[in-house]
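Workshop exercise sheet. Pairs work together: one partner reads the sequence aloud, the other fills in the structure field after running the prediction. Swap roles for the next sheet.
Pair: D.N. / O.F.
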Amino acid sequence: MKIAMWSGPRNLSTAMMYAFAARGDCAVWDEPFYAPYLAATGADHPMAAEIVAAHEADPARVAAACAGPVPGGQAHWYMKHMPHHMIAGFPLDWAGACVNVHLIRHPARVIASYAEKRGEMTLEDIGFSQQLALWQALPGPVIDSADIRTDPARALGMLCAEIGLPFHDAMLHWPAGPRSYDGVWAAHWYNAVHRSTGFAGAEGPLPEVPEERRALLDGALPMYEAMRARALSFA
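Structure field:
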C-alpha cells in the first residue's frame, strides 16, 4: 500500500511519519516535493538553499519516484506530503495509485506553532485552502491531530481500519532523536519531535491569536471546519 498523507505545516505530520516507520513494514518519505516547491517559487523559507541542494528539485523526477516501487522491499510506503507544495504544473497523477489521507489541525494552533519557527506567514504558507482543494480532488479519510493526541491507539486503530491496514502497537512509540529519513530541514523544524518518544497528550485550550494574525485565522477556519465535519468520528 502507498499512503499519501496530506497536511499543512505544524500539524503532527512528522510524528505520524515516525509512527508509520516504527511499524517495521513501512518505508517513509519526508516531504518529497519540498525542494521542487522551493526551487520553483523561490519562497524565503529557513534553510531553502540547503534544501534545494540536498534533495531532488525536479518535480517530474519526484513524481516518477512516487509512482515507482516501494523502497527497501517494504510492504507499504508512507509519504508525508504538504498540499501547498503542489503548485500548478507539478504532476499529481501518481497520487491516484495511493490511499490519500488528510491530516488537519485547528488553525489557531497551526498559526501559533508556525510563528515560533517563521515569524512571517500568509494563508498560502499554512496551506488550508490548498488542502481543502486537494481533499476535494483526492478524497480520502480525514483525521484531526487533536483526536490522535487525545487517544493515539484508538485514533490510529480507526485510521488503519479505514484504509485496510493492520494496526500495530509499535506505531505508538519510537526512540528519541533524528532519523536517517528526515529532510535536511529537520535541523530547523523538528527539535520537539526529536525529543519525543510517542504522541504527546491532549492539548490544552486554543491559543490566543494576536490581532495582527486574526485575518489568517478567519480565512483558515471555515476550511478547517469543512474538513473537520468529515473527519473520522471518535464520539
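Discussion prompt: The mean pLDDT is 96. What would you look at next?
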